[in-house]
Design a protein that fits this description.
heterodimer; A: 283 residues; mainly alpha; 0% strand; B: alpha/beta; 6-stranded mixed sheet; 3-stranded antiparallel sheet; 10 helices
């Protein structure tokens, strides 16, 4: 009793935030680190507004107008769009097949041996680290490099793009799936594992229901990225809108290029709508 | 038949250096029913997690049947865990799951993979799930989603999952903390009935002393991570209970509205247990 009375009699806790100093230090450190990076990246935005540069960019952009609408070009565009969608979708589907097993192995949320910790914890940790390493290697090499490799093996065309996407995006999806599965409520999965459930049971009865929205949203976003990536790979001969764009740019046909860019815009809007629908269904 | 749960001189120190349990020696025979009571922070939850092979003792050892599960292989440990059903205080059930799926998840430890996967699409044993829910007066919510349920209903879904699991050991950690007195009585009764019907060992930590006195023939009192007393309910005196909670004559933590006097444990015997024996 007397202790409590003594505590209330003393001055109240000063309201100076004990975290303030750390936060200020981190902020200053971030600026100190970022400033040289901007110099290294030759970030000089004012050069954009030098008179000569504006004129050059202006005439370059003016060449993009009006968008091309010739029927035979639109027919080509339609085929190329379908090809791009096919590359992106097939690539993501394959990447999904690559990513899911790796994510299930790599995620700590399904690590039975971590409970306790129990038997096999050393082996479990080693396997998880190795799997994360595989995911890192898969995604560290840009898809356009993989595409260059596969174009040599499979020849020009969409097949190389699909394989390149499967490899790189498999690594990306796998890494992010691993982390999404760990960031949700993992108690439910742990409870099932503690009742003798196998890992797949805990995955489908606990982790997937609690993270389905994030998983779906990220997968659709990656599909959208795959559409863009397939364009870049088209530049190296992997088919689709990219190859068409490459040809238009080489022929200095800005009108065609701008029609292709509008098509990208439409595809991204479609991806956005698709993501919204899936999230609503899963909510 | 696996018999008994035993802790021998077990202690537990958490990773952050905080000691949760000290020198716990307790033995539960096969089919025995025990309530663990004690003030908040006494180590009741940690005891349940230790017995449920969720935490590994820092000292001493756990014996289930006649083996130390922490010296068994991974496969044996998984098989053993399928025979342990834990009712968690806050039910670890994703809100998007349907009640029927949440209950059926109780048997994932014994179901083959194809059954677990197809059951996500078409419930593999909806009748079994509803039967478990019926025992907790929740049978009408079998096809609802769990996020449509109240906290008390969700807690009963957690109990139904363990009833459906039909484990050899039921460990319940404050299983009725979110329920009103009537439902709490019904739910503890359902756990006890399950134990009686299938010979399952039942250990429940309860914050309501009256429920413990009414349903359990043996009481373990815990305080500060240690066992203060462990004896037949009839031999637990009012002084021991008041000492456990350091209430000094004030009321003990209870559930019921028409509270009976805890002073004379003989009253306990007079209480009728509905539907049992």
């Amino acid at each position: 009793m007397s202790v409590a009375a003594g505590a209330t009699a003393t001055a109240p806790i000063p309201l100076r935030d004990p975290a303030a100093r750390t936060r200020a230090t981190v902020l200053v450190a971030a600026v100190v680190v970022l400033w040289p990076l901007l110099w290294l990246a030759e970030f000089k935005p004012w050069q954009l507004f030098a008179s000569g540069n504006l004129q050059v960019m202006g005439s370059f952009l003016a060449g993009f107008l009006p968008p091309a609408t010739a029927p035979d070009f639109l027919a080509l565009l339609w085929t190329a769009t379908l090809e791009t969608l096919a590359i992106a979708t097939a690539g993501i589907a394959l990447a999904f097949v690559v990513a899911v097993p790796l994510a299930v192995v790599a995620t700590r949320a399904l690590a039975v041996s971590r409970i306790g910790p129990g038997p096999g914890r050393g082996v479990g940790a080693a396997v998880r680290t190795a799997t994360r390493g595989v995911l890192t290697v898969l995604r560290a090499i840009p898809e356009v490099v993989w595409a260059l490799v596969f174009v040599r093996a499979l020849g020009l065309g969409p097949g190389a793009g699909v394989l390149a996407l499967a490899v790189t995006y498999g690594g990306m999806l796998g890494k992010v799936y691993t982390e999404i599965l760990e960031s949700g409520d993992t108690r439910s999965a742990r409870a099932l594992l503690e009742a003798g459930s196998p890992r797949l049971g805990a995955l489908f009865y606990a982790l997937v229901p609690s993270t389905a929205q994030e998983l779906a949203s990220y997968t659709v976003y990656r599909w959208e990225c795959a559409v863009r990536a397939s364009v870049v790979m088209g530049f190296v001969g992997a088919g689709g809108l990219g190859q068409l764009m490459d040809q238009s740019m080489k022929m200095l046909n800005g009108g065609e290029a701008s029609t292709i860019l509008l098509t990208f815009l439409a595809l991204v809007i479609v991806a956005d709508a698709l993501s919204a629908v899936i999230r609503r269904v899963l909510s | 038949m696996i018999n008994g749960l035993h802790l021998e001189g077990a202690g537990l120190v958490h990773a952050n250096g905080q000691r949760a349990l000290r020198n716990i020696t307790v033995s539960l025979g096969s089919g025995e029913r025990v309530a663990v009571i004690g003030p908040s922070g006494a180590g009741k939850t940690t005891l349940v997690r230790l017995l449920g092979t969720s935490l590994r003792p820092s000292e001493g050892r756990l014996v289930i049947g006649d083996a130390d599960p922490w010296h068994a292989g991974a496969r044996a440990l998984r098989r053993l865990r399928a025979t342990i059903g834990v009712v968690h205080q806050s039910p670890p059930i994703p809100p998007r799951l349907r009640v029927v799926t949440a209950v059926l998840a109780g048997r994932l430890g014994t179901w083959p993979a194809w059954k677990a996967l197809t059951s996500l699409v078409v419930p593999g044993d909806a009748a079994g799930a509803r039967d478990a829910l019926d025992r907790l007066d929740l049978g009408d919510r079998v096809f609802d989603r769990c996020d449509r349920l109240s906290g008390g209903q969700l807690q009963r879904v957690g109990i139904a999952r363990v009833l459906y699991q039909r484990p050899a050991f039921i460990l319940a950690d404050e299983p009725v903390s979110a329920l009103d007195p009537t439902l709490a009585d019904l739910s503890v009764g359902a756990l006890v009935a399950e134990s009686e019907a299938h010979g399952a060992t039942l250990l429940a930590s309860l914050h309501a002393v009256d429920l413990a006195l009414k349903w359990f023939p043996r009481l373990i009192g815990m305080k500060g991570g240690e066992i203060v007393f462990d004896r037949p309910t009839a031999a637990v005196t009012s002084a021991m209970l008041h000492d456990l909670y350091a209430t000094e004559g004030r009321a003990l933590p209870q559930q019921g509205v028409d509270v009976f006097e805890v002073d004379r444990p003989t009253n306990v015997v007079a209480l009728k247990r509905p539907g049992c024996q």
